TrEMBL record:
Keywords attached to this entry: Amino-acid biosynthesis, Cytoplasm, NADP, Oxidoreductase, Proline biosynthesis
Naturally occurring in which organism (per UniProt): Platanthera zijinensis
Primary location group: cytoplasm
Protein name: Pyrroline-5-carboxylate reductase
Source lineage: Eukaryota, Viridiplantae, Streptophyta, Embryophyta, Tracheophyta
The family this protein is said to belong to: Belongs to the pyrroline-5-carboxylate reductase family.
């Protein structure tokens, strides 16, 4: 049987912060690319040493990173994306793919500032740090099937990825971008409830966190609708339906929906 050859390409990061580190580590750990294929430049000394410690290449400037990469991930803060891309414009050529993870920066602006037309925009989220990101990508008109496949392989190394039209990106930010924070609050509140009901704090927090993880895995792996799973655990006059009644009285569903809508609207205002 013929073993398919590894698709090795050079991956450069402009902006070596937290998200770049999560992606670079995930990509290297999963074997999508060898560490020698991953490079960045040394904008800040402490980030340089983090990247160096994993064996990634550290080049002298972001210009060199672009010149020496097949795929360039723009991973600086959105506020400086314009300035950085305008400076890097001379280094972009048609054979390169620009991947932007800068929140709220539109494809049209990325094209104008970088002069690059092969672009894929991706919105990951912070669980990338533990290999559980929910990412959404929007593929620019000039990006090829191969570009798309490569980007999917990169972001699958840090979690899951879906494709959506750019018009959905503000809502993606409101749901999966901000969502981890909503769930942290839910976990904290569940633990507080456990403590109020008499559990030791450590046990309450561990149970709350594992319960959220387990419930998410049930939805993900069973293929069942969450309503179906909820019905399956609510026996008549039982404990769970008593708890659910309180959630409904407190407007739990409506509050979560409003949170996603408010974050989406705020994202629209900012971009
Ligand atoms: P971060 O602050 O950790 O990283 C940004 C890095 O860019 C820093 O290391 C900084 O030293 C470097 N930098 C600053 N100016 C630079 C320049 N001129 N040239 C090169 N590098 C420069 O931020 P982060 O959380 O990693 O976010 C990076 C990007 O990812 C942002 O655009 C953000 O919107 C996007 N994003 C982040 C998340 C998230 O959950 N953290 C989710 C989706 C998208």
């Amino acid at each position: 049987m013929e073993i398919p050859s590894l698709d090795v390409f050079k991956l450069g990061f402009v902006g070596a912060g937290n998200m770049a580190e999560s992606i670079a580590r995930g990509v290297a750990k999963s074997g999508v690319l060898p560490v020698t294929a991953i490079r960045t430049s040394h904008h800040r000394a402490e980030r340089r040493s983090v990247f160096q410690s994993f064996g990634f290449q550290i080049l002298e400037s972001s210009g060199q990173v672009v010149a020496d990469s097949d795929i360039v991930i723009l991973s600086v803060k959105p506020q400086i994306a314009r300035k950085v891309l305008l400076e890097l414009k001379p280094f972009f050529t048609d054979d390169k793919l620009l991947v932007s993870i800068a929140a709220g920066i539109k494809m049209r602006d990325l094209q104008e500032w970088s002069g690059q037309h092969r672009i894929i925009r991706v919105m990951p989220n912070t669980p990338a740090a533990v290999g559980e990101a929910a990412s959404v990508m929007c593929v620019g008109e000039m990006a090829t099937e191969k570009d798309k496949e490569r980007v999917v392989s990169l972001f699958k190394a840090i979690g899951k990825i879906w494709t959506a039209d750019e018009k959905f990106f503000d809502a993606v930010t409101g749901l999966s971008g901000s969502g981890p924070a909503y769930v942290y609050i839910a976990i904290e509140a569940l633990a507080d409830g456990g403590v109020a009901a008499g559990l030791p704090r450590d046990l309450a927090l561990a149970l709350a966190s594992q319960t959220v993880l387990g419930a998410a895995s049930m939805v993900d792996m069973s293929g069942k609708h969450p309503g179906q799973l909820k019905d399956a655990v609510t026996s008549p006059a039982g404990t769970t339906i008593a708890g659910i009644h309180e959630l409904e009285k407190g407007g739990f569903r409506g509050t979560l929906m409003s949170a996603v809508i408010a974050a989406t609207n705020r994202c629209r205002e900012l971009s």
